Amino acid sequence: MKIALDAMGGDFAPAYPVAAAIRALKQLPSIERLVLVGDEDTIHQELAKHGEAPSDRIHIFHTTQVIAMTDAAVEAVRRKKDSSLNRCIDLLKEGAVDAVVSAGNTGAFVASATIKLRNLLGVDRAGIATFMPTRNGKFLLLDAGASVDARPEHLLVYGIMGSVYCQNILKISEPRVGLLSNGTEESKGNEQTKDAFKLLKDAPIRFVGNIEGHGLFEGETDVIVCDGFIGNIVLKTSSSLAKSTFKWLKEELTRNPLRMFGALLAQNAFKAIKTKTNADEYGGAVILGLNGICIKAHGSSSIHALYNSLRVASEAVDNQINPHIIEALAKLK
């Protein structure tokens, strides 16, 4: 397969994207070619630092513009047509690559992909799907920020797409789908969630009902459905809390020699939990519902996170996610 990587997208571009690309080509044999999209001279310089050069597996697609994180999304997509982000989507639309990965401007990425690729048949609103940890595994949060004003019928489609994704990526035969709300009873929630509950209950998925915030990380569900406004808050709050908790632990465990000794004995446990809660381990978020595989990595992604984003892209292509979603939605109709 061929994957386009936005070499100019993200806080640490192009250094981190190029490093992640080199690692992915060494460790992910299913990727036949990586197309690094961005300023050719700059990318050449980064490749040289690693003793690499363009080859049959590394191709450079030169662009002259970059969409900044501060740029207005739709305006930037229209004004900066030769940006690395826009050209990545163009390559996917033309069939030159099978998937796209970018750590650039999220709004611009979603806007460009939606405008150029269009949605899959049966999908009105695409959704950002990202894995988050539970006690014994992980769950898929959908939508994590693509659409802040989703209607009940959009949440229904999110539930179906999330179920299909977990079936094929996590190999769960009947993923448990829950609706994020402020109570477990069917009568709880706002008008949006109440109407979505009725739709999800009659859908051809394993719907387990409403899930409250305190049940997110207990492993009660495999898919959590919500609109992008709530989902993005959940995602960023959880990530911030995880980081803050480890900072607080470090402060408390270094207050005196006795605590430091206890921390030394438990260091392997702390490392295991830190790895489990580290978003870098889960790779980028897939934008489900688009007519193409698009993976959005966080703007501050590390090399490891970008490598895992490329891994997620390759898994989505290998498992033919979009054809399975189209099939599932056709059954719904």
Question: How is this structure best described in words?
Answer:
- The protein is α/β, with parallel strands linked by helices and 333 residues long.
- The chain has twelve helices and eleven strands.
- The protein is 47% helix and 16% strand.
- The chain has an eleven-stranded mixed sheet with strand order 3-2-1-4-11-10-5-6-9-7-8, sandwiched between helices.
- Helix 1 (15-27) crosses helix 11 (303-318) and helix 6 (152-169) crosses helix 7 (191-201).
- The mean pLDDT is 92.
Compose a concise summary of this entry.
The chain has 333 residues and is an alpha/beta fold. It has helices spanning 15-27, 40-49, 73-79, 84-94, 106-117, 152-169, 191-201, 228-253, 257-265, 267-276, 303-318, 321-332, and strands at 2-6, 33-38, 58-62, 99-102, 127-133, 138-142, 176-180, 206-211, 223-225, 285-288, 293-296.
